[in-house]
Amino acid sequence: MASQSTDRYLALVNSPIGANVAAKVGLPRPAVLRRYRPDGPLLGGPLEVATIGAGLVGLTDLLAGLDVELAAPDSTARLGALLLDASDLAGPDQLAELRAKLAGSLRRLGPSARVLLIGRTPDGQSAWVDAGRQALDGIVRSLAKELRSGATANLIQLDAADTPLTNLAAPVRFLLSGRSAYVDGQVLRVGGGVAPAPGDWAAPLAGKTALVTGAARGIGAAIAEVLARDGASVVVADLPAAGQALAKVANRIGASTLQLDIAAPQAADTVAEYLTQRHGGVDIVIHNAGITRDKLLANMKPEVWDSVLAVNLLSQLRINEKLLDSATLREGGRVVCLASTSGIAGNRGQTNYAASKAGVIGMVRALAPAFAARQATINAVAPGFIDTEMTRAIPFVTREVARRLSSLQQAGLPVDVAETIAFLSQSAAGGVSGQVLRVCGQNLVGA
Amino acid sequence: MPARQAAILGGNRIPFARSNGRYAHASNQDMLTAALDGLAARFGLQDVRLGEVAAGAVLKHSRDFNLTRESVLGSVLNARTPAYDVGQACGTGLEATVLVANKIALGQTESAVAGGADTTSDAPIAVNEGLREVLLAANRARSVPSRLKALTGLRPNQLLPSIPQNSEPRTGLSMGEHQAITTHEWGITRAEQDELTAASHHNLAAAYERGFFDDLVTPFLGLTRDQNLRPDSSVEKLAKLAPAFGKRLADPTMTAGNSTPLTDGASTVLLSSDEWAAERGLPVLAHLVDAETAAVDYVHGDRKDDGLLMAPAYALPRLLERNKLSLQDFDFYEIHEAFAGTVLATLKAWQDPVFCRDRLGLDHPLGEIDHSRLNVAGSSLAAGHPFAATGARIVATLAKLLHERGSGRGLISICAAGGQGVVAILEA
């Protein structure tokens, strides 16, 4: 897989001598993260389940379907995950009970363990109820910063009482599995929407056709690879000038190449025509193509501004519009758009880039209802600091500092972004739409 | 007419490089493999067993004896895809296309790739003929003394290698010198040649700009467009070049500008039955309708009418007659620009009442063509001409032009060394 880490520090502090020294001197000790393998177990250890109140009806059945070992009541074994069902939380007074249940198990978490809270989306009906629900947000974000050894904490918010419980299956699997290795301190809302389970959870994209733009290298190549691994027929697109690298990616994973400039005005038509002719339509579209042209706003030339907006935002707008206007995107389609933490937190020298990436977030939220009308979803994924050719060009000291500035104290790998996108591409992820999911190891900068 | 026609589904080539340019260290096999891999990537043919692959190279090393099969084995195509080498000088690529198209039309195979590669940089250099004879004699000797005796035949001058010549073995004249005679005999002017050359550069550049080659070319070794292409070429600039061929003639007109440079590259084209294409959801760009090959006796024949590169002029009327078509019944003309003079002399011959009557046996000349339909996406003067790679470049280009137009008919004409020529009709 084209996503080997080049993080020498991480390797050092995970060697016997390095670990000893780092512990004594008090240096950050990033862990080697547990990552997904289709043939591997979902978790690194048993799952402990705790509930506030009655809890979700049917959750036990859902968890039984995960094929994971449940922790025995008095066991002292290292936990693979702790799942806390707080969906019945009625107000802040119940948070003390929640604290006690969490505290009792935290010390038993194994390496790369998962803490997963399930709550409900605040709905403005009751100040007491919403205060409790929103409090979970703060707990998860803070707890994620306290966890060590690659463990993560995330929150699922169930939208409405009538959201089918089956819509939880894919998000729960994702957040427990190694697919979410670099997703930390995040809130994922799950709502209604059609979310059929796959025939085989090891090949959840079987029979689907996927388009990945900007797929010649880096994150795009990793996305194509993971989608193909999960069973999709993949079309990889990139600039004609990147054709040689693109062909290599395609030939490695059994994909087809589509060379085109995604920013060209006719690109949306070309893409739609290609997908219709060759595949009779498309199920999954990943808008990954993006460029950076950093300059302080005062020094930025108009063409530099324009080119970043054209590639990163306008191309996505045009193609999405075409997908909706034509029958190209099949019913139950999935669109995932690459945003960036720069678009959320801002970054010096990146007004153009942040404009484009924040724009993507606005677009995704606005389009979700139109997509829902054809049982399709559209989401954004915002990568944080990911080890790619692009970040390898950053000066050594800056890069080393940036790598440690997250709760997981390391940069993510392209495959981490890819796994999150592959999750959102599943039909079973139909309950998730119009959202922005960060893959940033809970970056300490920004929201 | 056969029961079915072979469909052309698309093509792939690497950008053509000038000799000793970007591909100086790439072999024919490297380039052909890259072109096949790019084709496989474009059409999702990884590990697909095709009916066959037919390709060739004009300048071949002895190690390239099974060039096409070795390239297939090095590619992502299924290793059980058979392959063979084809050779008809610059006609190789088109002849290979015709061969596999015929097999498809006959139902002998369902899918095939035709192509070619040529390098003038990584050219074969053989040992001196004298040295070769001495070494072979020593090899035949049965005893040590007789072997040593044979080796006494070694001479210092035998160390000079034998470098391949770009010349006709029977005349000793280079192709450029041959064409210079033809150009002169047919009275083709310098201005006409330079105009055609500038148009070729402008058309190729415009085609790249509009993304025409986005699904026909895959970059290789850092080259993303044909290295020979000069978008800013002009008749004025070309007029400044000194003559390169026919310098002993009264009025030499052929320059390095209006002649193709030595080039490295490889190209492929994918053909199949309509059914094979439909099963894979691959749109058919065009069909290969018919083809004809001809040769001239340039050694003993007339200086004007039997010029080395005039054979397509003879092939075409036979092809038109068989298909009940006139020269004007085409929407596109792809006439290989070995030299601007070749194209212009061929077109002039088809307009010439005497040539058409005496040499082609026609009552009327074939007539003029609409020049706005000629080489509309550029041709060899701009792209370059890696000998065996030109045919598949032109076939894929014309098939796409016809597909873009929605329907229509196109003519291909390619001249080749040895006084040969191949012409073909494509329809969409």
The Cα radius of gyration of chain B reads: 22 Å
Tell me the strand order in the biggest sheet of chain A. 8-7-6-9-10-11-12
What would you call the shape of chain A?
A: globular
Principal-axes geometry of chain B comes out as globular
Query: Rg of chain A from C-alpha positions?
Result: 21 Å
Largest interface: A-B, 24 and 24 residues
Say what oligomer this is.
heterodimer
User: How many individual β-strands of chain B?
Assistant: 12
Please report the total strand number of chain A as a whole number.
Answer: 12
Number of helices of chain B: 14
Q: Pick out the low-confidence regions of chain A.
A: none
Order of H and E elements of chain B: EEHEHEHEHHHHHEEEHEHEHHHHEE
Distance between the termini of chain B: 17 Å
Largest sheet of chain A: 7 strands, parallel
Summarize the structure in words.
- Chain A is globular, with a radius of gyration of 21 Å.
- With 447 residues, chain A is of the alpha/beta class.
- The two termini of chain A are 31 Å apart.
- Chain A has 15 helices and twelve strands.
- In chain A, the strands form two sheets. In chain A, strands 8-7-6-9-10-11-12 form a seven-stranded parallel β-sheet, sandwiched between helices. Chain A has a five-stranded parallel β-sheet with strand order 1-2-3-4-5, with helices on both faces.
- In chain A, strand 9 (282-287), helix 10 (302-325) and strand 10 form a beta-alpha-beta unit.
- Chain A has helices spanning 8-13, 16-25, 59-64, 95-106, 127-146, 169-176, 218-229, 243-253, 267-279, 302-325, 342-345, 351-372, 389-392, 396-404, 414-424, and strands at residues 47-51, 79-85, 109-120, 152-158, 187-190, 209-213, 233-238, 256-259, 282-287, 329-338, 377-383, 436-439.
- Chain B is α+β, with helices and mostly antiparallel strands and 428 residues long.
- Chain B is built from 14 helices and twelve strands.
- Chain B has helices spanning 28-43, 67-74, 92-105, 129-140, 144-151, 175-185, 190-209, 235-239, 274-279, 311-323, 340-351, 353-358, 380-383, 390-405; strands spanning 6-13, 17-18, 52-55, 83-85, 111-118, 243-245, 254-255, 263-272, 286-295, 332-335, 409-416, 420-427.
- In chain B, the strands form two sheets. In chain B, strands 1, 2, 3, 4, 5, 8, 9, 10, 11 and 12 form a ten-stranded mixed β-sheet that branches. In chain B, strands 6-7 form a two-stranded antiparallel ribbon.
- In chain B, a hairpin with a 3-residue loop joins strand 11 (409-416) and strand 12.
- The radius of gyration of chain B is 22 Å and the shape is globular.
- The model of chain B has no long low-confidence stretch (mean pLDDT 94).
- Chain A binds chain B through residues 233, 240-244, 246-248, 250-251, 254-261, 264, 277-280, and chain B through 34, 37-38, 40-44, 46-47, 76, 211, 213-215, 217-221, 224, 281-283.
